Amino acid sequence: MKQYEYLAKGALREYGIPVPPGRLVNNPDEAAQAVQEIGPAALKAQVLVGGRGKAGGIRFATTPDEARQVAQAMLGMDLKGYTVERLYAEGKLAIEREFYISVTTDRNKKVPLVMASLAGGVEIEDVDDAQIVRQWVDPRVGVMPYFGRELAQRLGLNGVLARELSDLVVKLYRIYQDRDAELVEINPLAVVDGHLVAADARLNIDDSALFRHGDVPIIDEGSELEQKVHKIGLAYVELDGDIAIMANGAGMAMATVDAIQYFGGKPANFLDAGGGASVEPTAQALDVLVSMHPKVIFINIFGGITRCDDVAQAILQVKNSSGIPVPLVVRLVGTNEKEGVRLLEEAGISAYSDMAPAAERAVELAGEGRA
């Protein structure tokens, strides 16, 4: 579960990692009061997306009146599909250099991984691999001061910055352990007056460990559609294409996205209907896909625990109640396949047994819809 920046900064502050002065603001008057107290500040939209600065989600204010005006413009704005409801006012920094550092989990090696780079302030995916230093952690030992010294040496740092980085890595790893984190990231890790300061931060907590962290606020962030599907109990992520997708299981959903892209199409979403979703939640999820107004809907089911006849009944329920006004492509194979196919055929809906031709047909239909 992703945490807002102000919560991530709170965790860093609690563990003794330097962060700029800041406070959460909910309205323009609070923004003005924040600048009155901390001086010139950056007003940061509290939404769980990257690239906020380029999208207008980080703006600066020097005076309380300017902060009030900036907050008025930012609160309620749409930022990459998310509505900005809160801002974090943080003291403006005179940044001299920007680094990157994080602790995450290497799922291939099954051990913690510390990554650092002298090229901070940009997405780590955009940094050349040769500029990234990686050090894996022996979980039986953890991160001791020597670990940080080795990291600083590999980065070419010395003096004050090397000592501060060594201390910071130890504290960052403690957060990773204590919070059951999947990711703790500081980007940029800024150099201000010759010292390290966390200018931005991310903290993602493992959902499976939330029962151990009753004090962690549960964040239901996302677009309206994402929140709606999450309430049904299914996994959903919006994309920027025009072919709506439903599949059962995360692996199948990812394979479906890949298949659509392979044939030249653009997926509109990732929707995992789960391994055993019943008729009603499946029908509700399909209703959501219809409301997206895609060019095509592609349902790809490989039935195991999921029963093909339940999926067919969900499709028919939506078709008979609200209708499906766009072309529908169905791939249906597995448990109770014959019954599911029979139900669909009686309603005039044919079903594919192989994914590739079904995906190709979905892309063809979307192309016809765009023509």
Automatic annotation (TrEMBL):
Its EC number is 6.2.1.5. InterPro entries: ATP-grasp, ATP-grasp_succ-CoA_synth-type, ATP_grasp_subdomain_1, Succ-CoA_synthase_bsu_CS, SUCC_ACL_C, Succ_CoA_ligase-like_bsu, Succinyl-CoA_synth-like. It holds the Pfam family Ligase_CoA. It catalyses: succinate + ATP + CoA = succinyl-CoA + ADP + phosphate; GTP + succinate + CoA = succinyl-CoA + GDP + phosphate. Keywords: ATP-binding, Ligase, Magnesium, Metal-binding, Nucleotide-binding, Tricarboxylic acid cycle. One of its GO terms (cellular component) is succinate-CoA ligase complex. The keyword Mitochondrion does not apply. ATP binds at residues 44, 51-53, 90, 93, 98. Mg(2+) binds at residues 187, 200. Residues 9-234 form the ATP-grasp domain. Substrate binds at residues 248, 304-306. Pathway: Carbohydrate metabolism; tricarboxylic acid cycle; succinate from succinyl-CoA (ligase route): step 1/1. Its cofactor is Mg(2+). Gene3D superfamilies: ATP-grasp fold, A domain (3.30.1490.20), ATP-grasp fold, B domain (3.30.470.20), Succinyl-CoA synthetase domains (3.40.50.261). GO terms for biological process: succinyl-CoA metabolic process; tricarboxylic acid cycle. Binds 1 Mg(2+) ion per subunit. GO terms for molecular function: ATP binding; magnesium ion binding; succinate-CoA ligase (ADP-forming) activity; succinate-CoA ligase (GDP-forming) activity. The keyword ATP-binding applies. Belongs to the succinate/malate CoA ligase beta subunit family. Succinyl-CoA synthetase functions in the citric acid cycle (TCA), coupling the hydrolysis of succinyl-CoA to the synthesis of either ATP or GTP and thus represents the only step of substrate-level phosphorylation in the TCA. The beta subunit provides nucleotide specificity of the enzyme and binds the substrate succinate, while the binding sites for coenzyme A and phosphate are found in the alpha subunit. Heterotetramer of two alpha and two beta subunits. HAMAP family: Succ_CoA_beta. This is Succinate--CoA ligase [ADP-forming] subunit beta. The gene is sucC.
